[in-house]
Amino acid sequence: MSEPLIRVRDLTRDYRLMDKREGVMGGFVDLLRPRWRTLRAVEDVCFDIDPGEMVGYIGANGAGKSTTIKMLTGILTPTGGQVTVGGMVPWKQRRQYTRHIGAVFGQRTQLWWDLAVVESFRLLQKIYEVDDATYTRQMEIFDDLLGVNEFLHQPVRKLSLGQRMRCDLAAALLHRPRILFLDEPTIGLDVVAKENVRLFLKEIRDRDGVTVILTTHDLGDIEQLCDRVIIIDKGRVHYDGELDDLRQRTGHRVRLTVDLREPTTVAALEAAVSGLPVTWDQEEGLRHVAEFRRQDVAGAEVIKRLVNACPVSDLRLAEPDIEEIVREIYRDAKNGATAVSTNDGAAS
Known about the structure:
This protein is of the alpha/beta class. It has 12 helices and 14 strands. It has 2 domains: 242 residues, 3-Layer(aba) Sandwich (Rossmann fold), CATH 3.40.50.300; 69 residues, 2-Layer Sandwich (Alpha-Beta Plaits).
């Protein structure tokens, strides 16, 4: 078994914050006797990531995602714990380390605002000491996958958000890093631009074996790109495992949407599946939605009873989407449930 590329153990980060008093007099008092408190943004986070993995690192606002990423990139020094990436400690070997990573932080571009895109790429070539042959080859790949040649000679400030994100992805990968950190890479993008970014990331992973850590609020990114997810809440990891295992955590709960030919009461529907652990939670005219767990009852049995007893015109059986699953993980976290891990070294 190969060594993990990224190894995180008991990672913790505290911030020292000042509690400000109200009013003008409170401001004067703060100057003489400031009140300080400690905010723990990340607490005892542990996980391993293997080469070539694409991992979704998700959580609500303030959960600790960005703080973790900043420590992994070497921007922040942790209060406690250990991190090694490719055998390097990010905040101790910063200059050497940055040659092996790329990063895209949401809408904060790393390109020079008033320069043409190609000039930014040339500057990055110098900074990362990329030879001409590698630069040319990378630019051909970026044009093939992202179509960057059509706006290479435009100033960055004149690019659309989608065009700029494509250029930022190219800039982050120009020096062929082993690891790519993505913080909200599709935020604000339209449907077409999001799809372009997702296709590019899949291609780069398959082509070059780039390891990707993705933080996002767009769970469509997670479903399309990641096989593994790490869920963090209030600084602690509450789930680390495969996306399919995360779905199974809900008990294989499914939703059955029933379209009827004529109005039917919920009571009639309940009577049709009497004795089965099925709940009806939505009603919109001729459409009703039932919910049940696969291990409690077979979908075929529920459907058979409904078709035999009610004027059914259509049926659709669907797994819960990932938003629902994540909400369930958060509910477990708030209720004090133990963090779940299916990866060695990642339990918290």
